[in-house]
Structure formats: C-alpha cells, structure tokens
Write a structure and sequence with these properties.
alpha/beta, 211 residues, 3-stranded mixed β-sheet
Length: 211
C-alpha cells in the first residue's frame, strides 16, 4: 500500500522535467567531461521523503549537479528539489508545497524502542541523505504573465507564513519560467527568490532570506 503523498505527480509532468534537464545539458560546457558516475547532471524522478503519520513528499525530480571550474567551484555537488508546475492546480495549492517541504526539513523519525541520547541524538530524516537540505526550484509553465505573477505571489505569501520557522532562512526557494530556462539557460539569473521575487538570481547563487 502506497503512503499518501503531499506532492503528487502525473503523466502530464513527465515530459517537462526532461525539457528542463535538456536545457541544462545543452548550455553547460562541462557536460561530457566527467565519468559516467559523476555527470554534471543526475536526474532522479519522484524520490520519496517521509514526513510522518504515513505521509510523504515526492518532488517531481531530485537533481544532483556537479559544479566545476566553469562555475568557479572545485567540484561540489548541490542537490535540488524540482517542482514543475503546469498550472493544473490553483496558486494556493502550489504554495502549500512550501509547507510540505518545511515538514520534510524538520521531520525526525521515531525509532521504536530507541530513545535519543546525548551521544546519539535524534536527527532529521533528510540528514541521512544529504549533506545540506536541497534547494527547492519551482519551474512554471502553462499560464500567461498574469498567471505567473499570481503563482509567484502565492509562493511569496506561503513563504511568509513560514517566517517563524528556520526553513525560509536556511533553504533557498526559487521560481522561474520554463520558457526562460530554455531560452537563456537554467544557470543564468532568471530565477526569482520567492521571498523577494523582484530579484533575478542564478539558481547556484544565494537566494536565502536574511535573518
């Protein structure tokens, strides 16, 4: 029996993440310079992230991106949660995904028969998978300029509701149009931080909210 999911996927979404990945590959001069195990892009769809009481968050894709000299880096590998929005749900439902990711960020699994100690404290489940919590990227498609602004405004409002928590200060959350990614490339400053959507930043840059 499959656990209930907070973020669901469907057949209509299968093609769009591939388009996003293609845009990254064709515009990244590093592609092809690494062994197969260390490609600059590793795209894993629908990775299950539990948040307790039988629920889970399943991003459309998890992206591992190996950086290198062209990025001014020494080969670090950021992780990214990708959510592809084709305007098949209302703006408020889209913004509710931020709350779901905040639950992933703070979820600590309970191990039956085991109590946390100072030597072995309880830790968030995501820390067993990632050195840092992945960035969250919303790729917007399927609507016009007014619809895009409505959806970004909803994301901004959703981020504002999380202001009392650490999540919006510790995790970069950005949004961009799919057409901009395909035309300009995903590493260019076409991403809008949801807490300050008037900015335009590259997804590899800092999009954190100031404390």
């Amino acid at each position: 029996m499959t656990a209930p999911t907070v973020s669901t996927t469907g057949r209509s979404r299968v093609r769009t993440p591939s388009e996003t990945r293609f845009g990254s590959r064709r515009r990244n001069p590093q592609y092809g310079r690494f062994p197969a195990a260390c490609r600059p892009l590793a795209w894993i769809p629908e990775v299950h992230h539990p948040i307790g009481i039988g629920e889970a968050v399943i991003p459309d894709a998890l992206l591992y991106y190996r950086r290198g000299p062209v990025d001014g880096d020494n080969g670090s590998m950021p992780r990214v949660f990708v959510e592809v929005d084709r305007a098949t749900m209302g703006p408020e439902c889209l913004a509710a995904k931020l709350t779901a990711y905040e639950r992933v960020y703070r979820y600590v699994p309970v191990v039956p028969g085991r109590r946390p100690t100072l030597q072995e404290p309880a830790v968030e489940e995501w820390r067993w998978r990632y050195p840092l919590f992945p960035r969250v990227l919303f790729v917007l498609d399927g609507t016009g300029p007014a619809g895009v602004e409505n959806r970004i405004s909803a994301l901004r409002a959703g981020a504002g509701l999380l202001a009392p928590y650490r999540f919006p200060y510790d995790v970069t959350v950005l949004a961009a149009l799919l057409t901009d990614l395909l035309h300009h490339g995903p590493s260019t400053p076409v991403w809008r931080p949801v807490h300050d959507p008037d900015q335009r930043v590259p997804w590899t840059g800092s999009g954190h909210r100031s404390t």
